[in-house]
Design a protein that fits this description.
Blueprint: E1 3-7, E2 10-14, H1 17-26, H2 34-60, E3 64-75, E4 78-87, E5 94-101, E6 107-115, E7 122-130, E8 137-145
Antiparallel strand pairs: 1-2, 3-4, 4-7, 5-6, 5-8
Keywords: Membrane, Transmembrane, Transmembrane helix
Pfam family, one: DUF4307
Protein name: DUF4307 domain-containing protein
Length: about 150
């Protein structure tokens, strides 16, 4: 049974013991206390942010990077390219996968380009890729230490 009692300018219902028990059964206390839940969320958020920053910093400085500096379509079956390879440690040999693409972006030729260790950090290498049909560009698919 709910009765109203005056309290200041507003009225607030006064609950009986039975009503309080019914509400307690309907809306039980949370299984995990709120401060513990906040602490768990904070720890997970801090760990996630730490991992994100660490991953970003690691991938911001790759061991080797490469790009196609120039290319020439020689014929319907061949493309020549100049690949520029930049290594943080020039004493590490690398392998780059160079691909020739057709007008519809389909790969029409591919070449694994091994680059031996040198004293120069930046190296330019000329390659010739045999293609299945006319290529319109050359791209680097990946570069990794050998």
């Amino acid at each position: 049974m709910v009765t109203m009692r005056p309290r200041g300018d507003s009225t607030r219902p006064e609950l009986s013991i039975a009503d309080r028990e019914r509400l307690a059964r309907r809306y039980p206390a949370p299984r995990l206390p709120r401060p513990a839940l906040i602490a768990i969320v904070a720890v997970v958020a801090a760990a996630s942010l730490t991992w994100l920053i660490w991953t970003g910093l690691i991938h911001a400085r790759p061991v080797v990077s490469a790009n196609v500096a120039a290319y020439t379509v020689v014929s319907d079956r061949r493309i020549d390219a100049t690949v520029t390879i930049d290594r943080t440690d020039p004493s590490v040999p690398v392998v780059c996968r160079v691909s020739a693409q057709a007008e519809d972006f389909q790969p029409v030729g591919e070449l694994n380009l091994p680059v031996e260790a040198t004293t120069d950090r930046v190296v330019n290498v000329d390659v010739s890729i045999t293609t299945l049909r006319r290529a319109t560009t050359a791209v680097i698919r990946e570069c990794s230490p050998a």
